[in-house]
Design a protein that fits this description.
The chain is mainly α. The protein has a domain of 115 residues. It is built from 4 helices and 5 strands, in the order ααββααβββ. The strands form 2 sheets. A 3-stranded antiparallel beta sheet has the order 3-4-5. A hairpin with a 2-residue loop joins β1 and β2. The longest helix has 66 residues. The relative contact order is 0.03. The mean pLDDT is 80.
Length: 189
């Protein structure tokens, strides 16, 4: 068991030394000497990619668990506070109703605040299609004017790119500048 731990420690040290040897500053100076080394380096690259993914997942799992615990605590704390707040609101409402029952006033001013009753605004639902037709015929001023929007994806499909210009039906489209990318992209899968 101790030998396995020592071996792991040794391998970790070797990996650290290799990582220090091939830092991002050294990328221009180091060259792969052959196919076998390239195979080794791609495996190393894939392992690092996996380690990055594992680290991100571990962090996300930790954050999720901590958030869950914090939310449970918050629910517990808020539950008693909300119940107390509702109780206070109920007894203050009863008091205000009693004090204002024979009065035309709708509020009661106290040193610590005001108890008030207000009639709620009516809820209005709109059938926009029917309403739009009616307003178009009778009250156009309530209709908003909107600028037409350009469908960039469809324009790009229909147009032709030549150099740094875009052409539609053989005519140059003003207001469009095309930038050609110089270097091809590189990916490792």
């Amino acid at each position: 068991m101790a030998e396995a731990a020592a071996f792991k420690s040794l391998m970790d040290y070797v990996d650290e030394v290799e990582a220090e040897t091939y830092t991002s500053e050294d990328t221009g100076a180091y060259k792969i000497s052959g196919r076998n080394e390239a195979e080794y380096r791609i495996k190393e690259y894939q392992q690092i990619t996996q380690q990055i993914a594992d680290s991100k997942k571990a962090a996300a799992d930790y954050v999720e668990e901590a958030t869950k615990k914090a939310n449970e605590w918050l629910d517990k704390e808020l539950n008693s506070l909300v119940n107390r707040k509702q109780f206070l609101e109920s007894i203050l409402r009863d008091y205000a109703e009693e004090q204002l029952k024979d009065s035309k006033k709708k509020s009661l001013k106290l040193i610590g605040g005001t108890l008030a009753f207000r009639k709620p605004a009516p809820k209005v639902d709109y059938d926009d299609n029917v309403l739009r037709k009616y307003l178009f015929m009778n009250a156009v001023s309530f209709l908003k004017k909107q600028e037409p929007k350009v469908d960039h994806a469809e324009l790009k499909k229909a147009a032709e790119i030549r150099g740094d210009k875009m052409f539609l039906n053989g005519k140059e489209i003003p207001g469009v500048t095309v930038t050609q990318l110089e270097a091809p992209t590189f990916s490792i899968k």
